Amino acid sequence: MTIKKLSPEELLSLDKFNVDEGHPHILVDKAICATCTARVCLVVCPARCYRLKDDQVNFDYAGCLECGTCRVICTEKGVTSWSYPRATFGVTFRCS
Amino acid sequence: MAEDKFDAIVVGAGPAGSACAYVLAKQGKSVLLLERGNTAGSKNVSGGRLYTYALELLEPDMYKRAPLQRKIVREQIMLLNERGATTIDYFNPAFGEMVPQSYSVVRAELDDWFAGEAESHGATVASGVLVDDLIEEKGKIVGIRSGTDEMRADTVVAADGVNSQLGQKAGLFSDVKANAVGLGVKETIELPDTLISARFGVKDDEGAARVAIGCTDGISGGAFLYTNKGSISIGIVFNLVQAAKQQRDVQEIFQDFKTHPAIQPLIEGGTSVEYGAHLVPELGYHGIPQRLHREGFMVVGDAAQFGINTGLIIRGMDLAIVSGLAAARAILKSTNPSETGELYIKQLEELLVIANERAYQNFHNIFELSRIFSGYPKLANDAMKFMFTVDGKVPKPMVKGLMEAVKKHASFGQLASDGWKAYRSL
């Protein structure tokens, strides 16, 4: 295989995830995001968990790399709750 | 387990936690080492270099047992413009002799081994355990909660990483600020060892560490590249505040770097096998919280924001190990729980963690000079282009040509001002 640019989806497909269905470890208040103009989460989340859909910020915790960036960078307190996934869930790094 | 009381509970089996648990267990203390990942290291990402002295402090020759990758004998600095690159390559075989100065590492292997070392001396290692909260009684931390389980100890050592929620729950500090951390993204690319050695000009047990600037869209930050056994770690650390102010996604900027004409040939033919991201303490000495302990509780490693980044030297794991050792020594020396915290700070001083942080305390000011991340790398490449171009025309006088390259990217006022700021920071 040759080296090429990978999309966020391709990058995340390299990783092993065990998604805790129905138990998001990060909670985002959409009402706050609706009034936010900065929306920096869209460019800095390294997993692109935050995406624009119909001009609304959509959050999906499924590909979260558990880095903490969104919690730290959100100035509007739209990330209302942040914790690590429950034990055995989330990302598993094998060679980082 | 709920009825047991340990001498120490260490939360987080990264280098800081495992170092602490290892030393305590070796001295006969009862230690519970908790890790939220399924195995130690499975939640961890780092660029990938460990300075060996830290393991030596723990126990001479311990590094010989560790699953280290390549000993770093080449230090490379790369200045990129759009398509070109100027590289400084410092080779020093002495860095690989005696006790080699540093090794590239893969955390999934290193951390798992390290936790196993603690276990082999009698520490109880429990992975797949997420600590939710601390137990506080009469103003002291006396244990932890995980789900419905409660576990108690004389001391809880929080080695829970840069996002340390336990440090916040203990009331030692508030959440980490955006200006205090960098965002690191990284890809691991598998490549045959023979190719790695040939491309980086090293023997099979030797390796190179490379930093690169000029590849971050002008954002304060830099790329890194470490040679491992059978793989290369490649990534970028961004200043988070600046990354948030621009329009492009961080992983897009990273993918551009990966496929830069000067970078791609190094990894060509390889296979991308993993992508990770992590926050990195960036402020060095000034990022360390005022309070690192209270009765029954201490924070170590990234949780205490120990880190040094000079742009060339990036240290975290070594400081983590030494701070874990400091916490362990404090527990071992302490005769009264109320004095353990102060002993920890004393040990941090004695083991030179604080002195090292202080020595580099103003370095991060350099990263506020925006031209370092775009203008100056371009300047270097334009100067090189002038000096190496032969097209049959009469060349400009050397000084004139170089001055033109300089002026394109910075005025003399800016140069003087940046030079002065850099001098003051160093």
Describe the structure.
- The complex is a heterodimer of chains A (96) and B (426).
- Chain A is of the alpha+beta class.
- Chain A has a domain at 29-87: Alpha-Beta Plaits (2-Layer Sandwich).
- Helices cover 22% and strands 22% of the residues of chain A.
- A two-stranded antiparallel sheet of chain A has the order 1-6. A two-stranded antiparallel ribbon of chain A has the order 2-5.
- In chain A, β3 (50-53) and β4 form a beta hairpin.
- The model of chain A has no long low-confidence stretch (mean pLDDT 95).
- In chain B, a hairpin with a 2-residue loop joins β9 (140-146) and β10.
- Chain B has 426 residues and is of the alpha/beta class.
- In chain B, the strands form 4 sheets. In chain B, strands 1, 2, 7, 8, 9, 10, 16 and 17 form an 8-stranded mixed sheet that branches. A 7-stranded mixed sheet of chain B has the order 5-4-12-13-14-11-15. A two-stranded antiparallel ribbon of chain B has the order 3-6.
- Chain B folds into 3 domains: 5-67 and 105-173 and 289-351, FAD/NAD(P)-binding domain (3-Layer(bba) Sandwich); 179-281, D-Amino Acid Oxidase, Chain A, domain 2; 365-425, no CATH class.
- Classes of the chains: A alpha+beta (96), B alpha/beta (426).
What are the salient characteristics of this protein?
heterodimer, A: 96 residues, alpha+beta, Alpha-Beta Plaits, two-stranded antiparallel ribbon, 6 strands, B: 426 residues, alpha/beta, FAD/NAD(P)-binding domain, D-Amino Acid Oxidase, Chain A, domain 2, 3 domains, eight-stranded mixed β-sheet, seven-stranded mixed β-sheet, 14 helices, 32% helix, elongated
